[in-house]
Amino acid sequence: MSTATTQDPEHRTVVRGIGFPALGGPATTPLGWPGPDTVSRETAQAASEAEPAPGTGRLPTPSTAQTAPGAEDRTPDGAQDDTEEREQIAAALPGAGDETPLAQAVADDARKRITLSGRSVPRPSRTRVLTVANQKGGVGKTTTTVNVAAALAQAGSSVLVIDLDPQGNASTALGIEHHAEVPSVYDVLVEGRPIAEVVQECPDVPGLTCVPATIDLAGAEIELVSLVARETRLQKAVSAFVAEREDAGERVDYVLIDCPPSLGLLTVNAFVAASEVFIPIQCEYYALEGLSQLLKNIELIRSHLNPRLHVSTILLTMYDGRTRLSAQVAEEVREHFPDQTLRASVPRSVRISEAPSHGQTVLTYDPNSSGALSYLEAAVELAERGAAAHQPTQESA
């Protein structure tokens, strides 16, 4: 079995654009599955030199996603609208009946790949600041944060991830150093250090940056208690950073804040800093029970600290189509929150769980997996909904 560390000239490399790797080695199968090659973390430099794979037996692809070099030039402003062409190609794929769920899943993934491969998303008119929150642990907050951020960055957006969880899992998934000596979000909150002095670039995804979390953040809640304006410290830092980048002509399109599984001062800071709440919900009963408590706390923040705060996005995670429970939870969430719940849902996926152990998101670890396709779909929907709503978000300080 191949591993990501195997030194082989025929490595997969990831290119810009909500795209999939340029396969420099063996040709793909007719549905676009990769041949027996390995995954490489060489992204930016190697991608520009990668040659497109032979097209033998491959399904026709839209003109904007035919070759790897074209992906380098894709930008939301100059992107060619080929949505109709993609839909026609996807519709031409043979269907699969309900009696063959595996074939149906493969066909659905193939359609998603054709629809999303190399596609650009509209950039927001202003910086969108989203807090990814749910006080219940294990619902996919960190996984959702890093993978949606990576998908948006691959589409050409400028994305900042703020890791506000003392465990530092978001920093790990993005390949960011976060040992005790590294300047981190702790210095921003407690010491008043500017974000520009602690931010790091993600080595795998151009356009994606991260403010890491270290173990020092575990004591920040206690230290914040005695500080002046303790609830607004992150908001001031984010506003200053966004304004600074905009003045420099390098506007940040999205700020995603990964919260700890609690409702303490760190999460309150995240709620005050953002204007949108992004809630991942695991398709199980306990997640529904926790959602009602979360909504009550969001309403308290709205009343006393941040009247602009609202729930803009809900994403169903760990969806298992084989069980009635997942379907029932999804149905109930969509019934109560029809405008906020994304059409996309994220299935249980081994690839999603494996990716952090390699210091990567699933978008770079295995772009063709069902988990990567689902997060791509969610990111596109998130961006398009925001563009359609013309949602103002972050006020400059």
Describe what is shown at a glance.
By secondary structure, the chain is α/β, with parallel strands linked by helices.
Question: Can you tell me the overall shape?
Answer: globular
Rounded to the nearest angstrom, the distance between the terminal CA atoms is 53 Å
For the record, the count of structural domains works out to 2
- Main-sheet strand order equals 6-7-5-8-4-9-10-11
Q: What is Rg? A: 21 Å
Helix coverage percent? 25-40%
| Number of helical segments with 4 or more residues | 15
CATH superfamily of the largest domain: P-loop containing nucleotide triphosphate hydrolases
Count of DSSP E strands?
A: 11
Which CATH top level class of the largest domain fits?
Answer: Alpha Beta
Instruction: Point out poorly predicted stretches.
Output: 1-79, 391-397
CATH architecture of the largest domain: 3-Layer(aba) Sandwich
**Percent strand:** 5-15%
| Mean pLDDT rating | 77
Domain AAA: 128-310
Protein name: AAA domain-containing protein
Pfam family, one: AAA_31
Region (Disordered): 1-86
